[in-house]
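The pair is quoted verbatim below.
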Amino acid sequence: MTSKPTTEWHNAKLDFSNDMSYGDYLGLEKILSAQHPRSPNHNEMLFIIQHQTSELWIKLMLHELHAVRAQLGSNDLPPAFKMLARVARIMDQLVHAWDVLATMTPSEYTAIRPFLGNSSGFQSYQYRELEFLLGNKNAALMKVHESAPTNHAKLEHALTTPSIYDEAILLMARSGLHIEPSRLQQDWSAPVKSDTSVQQAWTKVYQSPEQYWVLYELAEKLVDLETAFRIWRFRHVTTVERIIGFKTGTGGTAGVSYLRKMLDVVLFPELFSLRTEL
């Protein structure tokens, strides 16, 4: 006796022959078929998915941060606050993602490493754009992306336009706080440097939060963001050290030694240094 096809289940729609399904909406066929291990090792799938999901989260962060930059430029801060908080939470998510990769042992990674060639997270154009948007700019790193003109153009734009922190400083100036003209007209492609007038302006905001409440809230959102970013980078270096020790990275960097140097990079220097003086 053959059973009849199920036509309903708790009022859920079951027939999607003529309608968009969950998988259609999300493009799951493309996403779930994008994993192509090159080695015979079981653990390579973890390595691939770890990095693919990280790139998806970075894509969302870029989506949010480009909007934040536009909101700051138009003096519309409340939406920017929500977006900055979201980006910080995404970074928290990425911190915990390292816990999964940390289940890969050194011998398991060694088995797949020869199949990676020279590919490396150092070459992630999305991560580089994220760094540029946050103010950690380095024109020399553009060369890595010359072979991909579209990506190179995106990075060129991020390099040569104000970062989110630059926009925050421009906003302070528009709000009547004194910022030296040299800081307001600087070469946007240069890495961020601490500026005395900027620190004095932020100090004034912190000393009179009631008068500058919106800027005060912006400052704390930026501190939250950088704190989350630092933890993400720290978790990255400790995971890499756990798995590969002090071997050279696949992309040619010094591996852990290089990543440790990146821990010293401060994105919003005046917001941290003023705390000693308050």
About this structure: The two ends are 82 Å apart (CA to CA). The chain has a mean pLDDT of 91. The first helix runs from residue 22 to 26.
